[in-house]
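Question thread 4412

I'm putting together a teaching handout and wanted feedback from people who do this every day. The idea is simple: show students a protein as raw sequence, then show them the structure tokens that encode its fold, then repeat with a second protein so they can compare. Below is the first pair exactly as I plan to print it.
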Amino acid sequence: MQRFQGQRAVVTGGNRGLGLAMVEALVARGARVTVVARDAERLKEISTRLEVDVIQGDVADEGLARSVIAEVRPTLLLLNAGASPGLAALHEQTWEGFSRSWNTDVKAGFHWLQHALRLPLAKGSRVLLSSSGAAINGSPLSGGYAGAKRMIWFLAQYASGVSKELDLGIRVQVLVPRQIIGDTEHGRLAAEAYAKKKGVSVAEFLAGFGAPMAPKQVGEYVATLLGDPKYDQGIAFGVKGDSGIASLD
């Protein structure tokens, strides 16, 4: 708990799903949190309920990334925001849907990391990017999503290398949920698509991952990653409902 007292956290996409669970876990531990997202109504609700600061905007906008990092100067930066990919087989995809994750998730990670390194953030700051198990196993119904999530993993590695080379003291890591989380909007839609393809129920499909993993559990895993000194080193960490946190380096 003491590790979070006085910490300034920025969470992109922190108004719903896994991002909101991360915000709630950080607030519960005493961090001062700023949430960046597009949906004004959701931002207003969580600002009132959780007493967090909110900034409305497109996380893929370089100017927004630059201004938020310069003004808030976070010591914890959680880059969680991402677009919902188009769900269809390759031959049924449009390029717009196929590339959506690249134009939002990867573009946002690129700009926010650049400005975190250029400012730079204070020594000892932590940056945590959100990837996906699709970065390991692929995701044939999600267009360019799997490739985008693998690129986010690479971005964490590249940024970590820059931090070391320039002696910035910024730790950059990546979170890799190893299962579809059916309690989120994106997870539910993905589970429905893959269950239909396999000819099974959504419940049967999700059971194939083992124990379910709720958003709140992911939020707690994130707080553990950021708060427990044993996770200070390393870049990639996978999380699952039945096995917890595991290094993927």
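The second pair follows. I'd like the answer to focus on this one:
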Amino acid sequence: MKFAFVLVLLAALLGIGQIDSPNQNKWEVSPAAVAASAREYPTVNVVPLHREKNWGGGSCVHASLVMLFRWQGRYQMAAHWRNTYIGGEYANRCHGRLEKEGVRWAATHNDVKFLDWACRTRRGCAVTVMGGAHMVCLVHFDETRAGILDNNNIGKIKWMTRDAFIKEWKGASGWAVTPCYTPPAPLPWVAPK
């Protein structure tokens, strides 16, 4: 009985309801729950505990990857990466290191569709900015705006228009990279008061 109560409570919290058709006996996500899942800002909502500051005088690529590893539930790899790599990084060497470590990863240069995919799938990605001199995490990317989590200022998300971000990113070599594992589910929707 307690188990059934927990299931009903969980279904109510997640916006899941049973279909009342006599020919169907399955669970489906309600349209309200789907719409609510798109309301989490940023989409890649890295908790403060999992944010990583730049270290060693210029490990922005590594700090960004560590945050993405943690977000995607790869805590051991995050710790290993943090303890193994330091200093400046560039695309080819980074990709080689990801291969060497057995990491599943994806990357691009200048393909905006990759950024859309990375954020739509809630993975996020590390992206170059400042003419290629810095790398940050792209934690939100929708039709109108982009959210940046900078490893030099992990206390807040920097918001900018989508177009301004794309211009900045493409002017900074347009490199983006992400581990390809499973991010956490969106926060449950809570009805406004």
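Top answer:
Good format. For the second protein you could add a caption like this: Helices lie at 2-14, 31-37, 60-71, 75-84, 91-100, 112-120, 162-170. The first strand starts at residue 16 and ends at 18.
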